[in-house]
Amino acid sequence: MKFPSLIRTSKFSQFHYEPRYYDPIKEEIEGKLKAARANQNNPSDTPSYTSSISAAFRKRERKSNQASVVQMLIAAAMLLTFVGWVFYGNQVFYVYLLLSPLYFYFRLKGRNKSRD
Predict the structure, then answer these.
(1) Which keywords are on file for this protein (predicted)?
(2) Most buried among 47, 50, 87, 113, by the most CB within 10 A?
(3) Are 49 and 56 in contact (CB under 8 A)?
(4) Domain ranges of the chain
C-alpha cells in the first residue's frame, strides 16, 4: 500500500544501447564496389578510395601515444619533485620558480611562430 506524498519520484527509464563494430573486410568490399561503380560511369579515372574508419583508428592511436608520453613526463616530474623535496626540502620549489619564466618564454615563442 502506497502512502500519498507531495514529492513525485521519477519512473525508471530504460537505457537502449546499440553497439557499433568495425569490420575491415566488409569496409574493403564496399570500397571496391564503390570504386568499380565509379569506374563503370567514368572509365578514364583510376579507382581511388580511402578507408575512413581505419584512418580514424590510426589517428586515435597516434593521439593516445602522444597522451601517454605526456602522462609519463608529468609522472616523472612529480616523482622527481617528491624525491627532491625529501632530500633537499623546500629549496626544490625554488627551481620551479627559476624554470617557470623559461617555460612561458618558449610557450609564447611557439605561439608567435604559428601566427607568422
Answers:
(1) Membrane, Transmembrane, Transmembrane helix
(2) 47
(3) no
(4) 16-49, 61-115
